[in-house]
Amino acid sequence: MKAGVPHKLKIRVRTMILVFLCLSVASIGKLIYMQFFQYEWLTLKAEENWDREIPFSQTRGNIRDRDGQLIVGSKLAPTLYFMPAQNKDVESAAAKLSAALNIDEKKLFEQMSQKPFLIKLAPEGKNIELEKALEIQSLQIPGLYTGVDYVRDYPHEELLSRLLGFTGYDHQGLAGIEFQYDKYLTSTQSTLRLFTDAKGNSLPHVNDGWGKGTDGATVELTTDLDVQEIMERVLSQAMLKYDADQAMGIAMNPKTGAIIALASFPTFHPLQYDKVSPSVYNQNLPVSMTFEPGSTFKIITLAAALEEGKVDLQKDSFYDPGYAMVEGTRLRCWKREGHGEQTFLEVVENSCNPGFIELGQRVGRQKLSKYIRDFGFGQKTGSSIAGESTGILFSEESYGPVEHATTSFGQGISTTPIQQVQAVSAAVNGGTLFQPYVVERIYNEQTNEILLENKPTEVRQVISEDTSKLVREALESVVANGSGRNAFRDTMRIGGKTGTAQKAVNGRYVEGQYIVSFIGFAPANDPEIVVYVAIDNPKHVLQFGGVIAAPLVGEIIEDSAPFIELKTNKDQIEKEYRWGDPIERRVPLLVGQEKNKLMMMDEPFKIEWHGTGNKIISQLPKAESLLSIDGTIHLYLSE
Question: pTM of the full predicted structure?
Answer without folding.
Answer: 0.79
